[in-house]
Amino acid sequence: MARLTEGAKGVYVIAVTPFADDGALDFTSIDSMVDFYESVGVTGLTVLGQLGEAPKLTAKESRTVVERVLKRLDGRLPVVVGVSAPGLTPMQELAEAVMDQGAAGVMVAPPWTIKTDDQAFAFYQSVGEVLGDTPFVLQDYPLTTNVTIAPKVIDRIIKEVPNCVMLKHEDWPGLSKITALRAYSDKGETRRISILCGNGGLFLPEEMGRGADGAMTGFCYPEMMVGVVQAYSVGNVDRAHEIFDAYLPLARYEQQQGIGLAARKYVLAKRGVIKSAALRKPGAKLSPLDVKDVERLLARQKRRLQEIGA
After folding, report:
1. What is the pLDDT of residues 191-208, one digit of tens each?
2. Domain layout of the chain by residue ranges
3. How many C-alpha atoms does 136 have within 13 Å on its Cβ side?
4. What string of DSSP letters covers 39-71?
5. pTM to 2 decimals?
6. For the segment 219-266, what is each residue's pLDDT rounded down to a tens digit?
7. CATH 3.30.565.10 matches 10-236
8. CA neighbours closer than 13 Å in the CB half-sphere of residue 17
9. What is the 3-state secondary structure (H, E, C) of 179-236?
């Protein structure tokens, strides 16, 4: 499999991790999930992300999940693997293992202990050194990590850490950050790296308008992200927003802290993508009223998609 580069574009969907009702890994559902993501036109997959319940997996399970996904894809799509860890040694160990298995690159979020710009730069400089020639994604998700990385710091990392090839942009609000980073590269002050955006795609049309290259996030209807990115790529901005608007109520519901992932898995199970909607404990469960909400949103979404011919 070709390695991740600065030119990456499209939709790298954040994959859920399917579990059986008893919490065991569901390998059959991993296969059907991979098939589904591929069928709806995603560019690549990202596994072991935060909403892939990566912290709930053992080190052995993490490698097994990656191996199963890569085997199912058989090189047809690139796979990025989340390898964030409290220390550089376990991060390096997992990164080496998944790259040997055929991953395209890895993703690294900063530890919560980072408090200053210099500390943020020093951390990613160390990540670059430890990973060697492995391309990596800088995950910028301050709402979860509590680490804010200013555009000037990201620009410094891009200049001095050559194997940082992508920014996973999840700052919120963060449109100005994309604008600032693109200004640096447009002026020739630094190289242009790929920017893929997260947050469930809630700001995807606006992010594309600011210079993002696509999405790296999860949603129970990844068709939305694929449609928005494809429409934007051919200059049909109005169609991109029309597609986005049809899915927005459900995407918004999915972004709730606590039950958001449970809602995503509920819909994926309902669609036959995975067998069980279970989260590994500790994990939220939808109440009957939550399910009623989701079902109402699905019905309204279906009608709207029919109206716009999507």
Report:
1. 999 999 999 999 999 999
2. 10-236
3. 33
4. HTT-SEEEES-GGGTGGGS-HHHHHHHHHHHHH
5. 0.96
6. 999 999 999 999 999 999 999 999 999 999 999 999 998 899 999 999
7. no
8. 27
9. HHHHHHHHCCCCCCCEEEECHHHCCHHHHHHCCCCEECCCCCCHHHHHHHHHHHHCCC
